[in-house]
Specification:
With about 100 residues, the chain is of the alpha/beta class. It has five helices and four strands, in the order E-H-E-H-E-H-H-E-H.
């Protein structure tokens, strides 16, 4: 099982590659859809990392996959375009999902 990155930022892509995580660089909604489709079909991919900016631009598509598919896990990561308040986002997800405030 491995990770796969979908990024709009070359710096994030290079940094993840240095860490052994493969990925693609995309900029348009159609490219995001194609990259997600290919990653979802690859049985070796357990976690898809997607940058905040791309998730925001393609939120309906990503959330539909998150709700209707068990694998792989899709995780939003911050990059230079995103906010650094990822713990706030995680707390909000938990609160919305199970109704507990952290």
């Amino acid at each position: 099982m491995r990770f796969f990155l979908i990024s709009d930022n070359i710096d994030t892509l290079v940094g993840m590659r240095l860490g052994g995580i493969e990925g693609v660089l995309v900029h348009e909604r159609a490219e995001v859809k194609s990259a997600l489709s290919q990653a979802m079909q690859n049985r070796d991919v357990a976690v898809i990392l997607i940058t905040q900016k791309l998730l925001t631009e393609s939120s309906e598509m990503v959330y539909d996959l998150k709700l209707n598919r068990k694998c792989p896990l899709i995780v939003e990561i911050p990059d230079r375009h995103g906010s650094s308040h990822i713990s706030t986002s995680i707390s909000q997800y938990v609160r919305e999902a199970i109704g507990i405030r952290i």
